[in-house]
Write a structure and sequence with these properties.
single chain, mainly alpha, serine acetyltransferase, domain 1, disordered N terminus
Length: 252
């Protein structure tokens, strides 16, 4: 059996629980992993819920089932850019934003090389997930308060993800990619025109895999060099033409 830790600020199951308490925990999982999207009764994973109820599935395994579900794919993968999908995976599954471009590149490589399930597993089966949530704690937002080993910029970046839409993660546009790629601080408020963030003179090399014959670049078939203020638009163009971005690095 399972126990709901009612004295804890976080949703965690211990050896016993009531059905009402279990339902509260299940709703907490859906809210966190699905980004506060409205969930209809017909969309619930009843088989996985039953396994959790009888103790044959841990909270971590239930989280993985939700993240691998067709519902999660339809909400955040099928209709979003690859970068938006990855930053939401960080938010939903690890409770924080991506920290550096190398993390984005790592997950782009996992998805392109190993597929959707491997990308989801790379978060939930990680040491970071285990150290913070273990087997029986529902993932929660960690970057809105100071934590050892987490950069201060994560605070602002997490608020950018939390405030990207009024009530859910239905916005399909990546929020952090240009700041992360440019290694720039993220402001909670939108930068005003002419600020140092929007007028940076840095240039960036985008490497990508072609998805169709109509995708061309000035440096060959799989690379672009663009100014910072062109970075977001060029990324969108690559995705629209079926390409997959492999990496973004500062061009010197």
């Amino acid at each position: 059996m399972l126990l709901w830790a009612t004295d804890s600020p976080r949703a965690k199951l211990l050896p016993k629980t009531t059905e009402d308490e279990l339902q509260t925990l299940i709703r907490t999982v859906y809210k966190q992993i699905l980004g506060n999207e409205h969930l209809m009764e017909s969309q619930r994973l009843l088989s996985a819920e039953s396994l959790l109820r009888v103790g044959s599935m841990t909270v971590r395994e239930f989280v993985k089932a939700v993240a691998k579900s067709e519902l999660y794919q339809s909400l955040f993968f099928n209709s979003s850019s690859q970068y938006r999908f990855i930053e939401l995976n960080f938010k939903h599954l690890l409770g924080r934003p991506p920290g550096e471009q190398s993390e984005i590149a790592e997950h782009v490589g996992i998805y392109n090389g190993q597929g959707y399930d491997a990308e989801i597993e790379s978060y939930i089966d990680s040491d970071e997930y285990q150290q913070n949530f273990g087997e029986d704690t529902v993932p929660y937002v960690r970057s809105t308060s100071s934590q050892t080993g987490m950069k201060n910029v994560s605070f602002n970046r997490m608020f950018s993800l939390l405030r990207g839409t009024a009530s859910s993660d239905s916005d399909r546009k990546a929020k952090l990619i240009t700041d992360i790629a440019a290694n720039l601080p993220t402001s909670i408020k939108t930068p005003v025109a002419g600020s140092s963030v929007s007028s940076t003179s840095k240039r960036f090399l985008i490497k990508f895999a072609k998805g169709c014959t109509g995708l061309r670049s000035r440096l060959g078939n799989t690379e672009y060099v663009v100014d910072y203020n062109q970075l977001s638009q060029q990324m969108q163009n690559i995705h629209k033409l079926g390409g997959k971005i492999i990496s973004i690095t500062e061009f010197t």
